[in-house]
Amino acid sequence: MLNRHARALFTRLFAPLANALIRAGISPDVVTFIGTAGVTASALILFPLGHLFWGVVAITLFVFSDVLDGIMARLVNRKGRWGGFLDSTLDRVQDDAIFLGLALWFYGGGHDDGTGALAVVCILLGNLVSYARAKAESLGYEANVGVAERAERLVSVLVVAGLCGLGLPTPFLFWTLAVLAAASAVTVVQRVVAVRSQTKAESGSA
Q: Which residues catalyse the reaction (predicted)?
């Protein structure tokens, strides 16, 4: 839900910039790589140093490239599957970098191994959420269900991490990560159940 509403808003906001970049000869893929490099560097440099607020600010600016490259692809009528594959792959890089940066901080200067461990768990479960959908779709099934899709996970962790950088007690981030981990686990189960239902329906109609 958050994806649909947010993208509609950002499409209106970023269309002029997308047109300007296209006129300058910059391709959607270049924007994708720049955004991923920016998010990864921000998360793995600023978060481990304890700069949670400024890390979130930098990451947020680069995350907008995910919207921008999609707008550019539509404007240049790029309908090939390469763009979708590239976006999906680099999204995983960005997500993992964000949670890994938090884990490095809490295992290091943050002195909170429990929160660090939860960040690692979120990496593992987040990748499993994505894999479940990708594998289902590769087999011809639909698995775009679940309570914790990518946008919800990112917004939740970035908002709370940024607030912790401004002084919010870090236990709030611990519980946010705990909820995200639980929601991701539920999402995996929901996707498994969805695919199982489709396979049973196939067997029943055969």
A: 91 (proton acceptor)
Query: Contact, 187 vs 129, CB < 8 A?
Result: yes
19 three-state secondary structure: helix
Q: Is 113 annotated as a binding residue?
A: no
Cβ-defined contacts of 70-77 (< 8 Å, 24+): 70/7, 70/28, 71/10, 71/11, 71/14, 71/15, 71/18, 72/18, 72/21, 72/22, 72/27, 72/28, 72/31, 73/28, 75/15, 75/18, 75/19, 75/22, 76/22, 76/28
- Give per-residue pLDDT as tens, 98-133: 999 999 999 999 889 999 999 999 999 999 999 999
> Domain 2-195 has what CATH class?
mainly alpha
Rounded distance between C-alpha atoms, residue 79 and residue 35, angstroms: 21
Residue 70 is labelled as binding a ligand: yes
Tokens of 33: 């790589």
CA atoms of 151 and 1, how far apart (whole Å): 9
Per-residue model confidence (pLDDT) at position 84: 80
Residue 34 CB-density burial (10 A; 0-12 exposed, 13-18 middle, 19+ buried) = middle
Look up tokens 């993208």; give the residue.
Answer: 7
pLDDT beneath 70, residues of the chain = 1-7, 79, 205-206
To 10 degrees, what angle do helices 150-165 and 113-138 make? 160
Q: Let me know if 113 is a catalytic residue.
A: no
What pLDDT does residue 1 have? Answer: 44
pTM: 0.89
Q: Is 30 annotated as a binding residue?
A: yes
